[in-house]
Amino acid sequence: MTSISRLLHRRGFGIHSPWVYTLLRDVLFESLPYYTFSPLRQQFPGRTRRQIAMDEQLFRLAHYASPIPLTIIGNVSPSATEYMRQGAATSRHQATTSIERIVVVEDIAANLATWQHYLSDPAATATFDIDGRRGIAIYNPQLSKLHYKV
Predict the structure, then answer these.
(1) Of the N and C termini of the chain, which has fewer Cβ atoms inside 10 Å?
(2) What global pTM score does this model have?
């Protein structure tokens, strides 16, 4: 049942918040490539499709969030670090949202206590469990506390 709900939420179905729906569809699970993806893929050969997808997701999140602070907890590969750096560098966003910060917890199983802390933090108003591998906590005082498994 959990995998079915994850699949439905991943595409945005069952999400009632327009902001969260847009974040899922246009940032976290966007399938169109950015122009910087091809050079970055060549710079870091030998990664699996899953690793490339996770790195590209970090790029899109950093691109979306910039200049909002993005904190990563857990083991971060050199490729993920470079993807995030490139994403933040190519962003032209102005701070138009009331997001205060974003925390990404890599490898939820290895950092379970840390992830539980962010899940229970009342200031972390939107939390996303992505395939049980990556957790994202978003601090936005204008949102009600919600948790999504995608």
Answers:
(1) N
(2) 0.87
Is 122 a residue whose pLDDT tops 70?
yes
- Pairing label, strands 70-73, 134-139: unpaired
Find how far residue 25's CA is from the centre of its chain: 12
Rounded CA separation 39/31 (Å)? 17
The rounded distance, in Å, linking the Cα atoms of 135 and 133 is 7
Q: Which domain holds residue 18?
A: 2-149
pLDDT of residue 104: 97
Q: Which of 12-21, 30-39, 52-61, 140-149 has the lowest mean pLDDT?
A: 12-21
Separation CA 11–CA 34 (nearest Å): 20
Count of the separate structural domains present in the chain: 1
Residue found by looking up tokens 């699996």 in the block:
48
Look up residue 80 and give its two tokens. 């993920």
Could you tell me which residues are beta bridge partners of residue 134? 106, 130
CA 86 remoteness from chain centre: 15
User: What is the structure's pLDDT at 95?
Assistant: 59
- CA-based torsion, 138, 141, 143, 146: positive or negative: positive
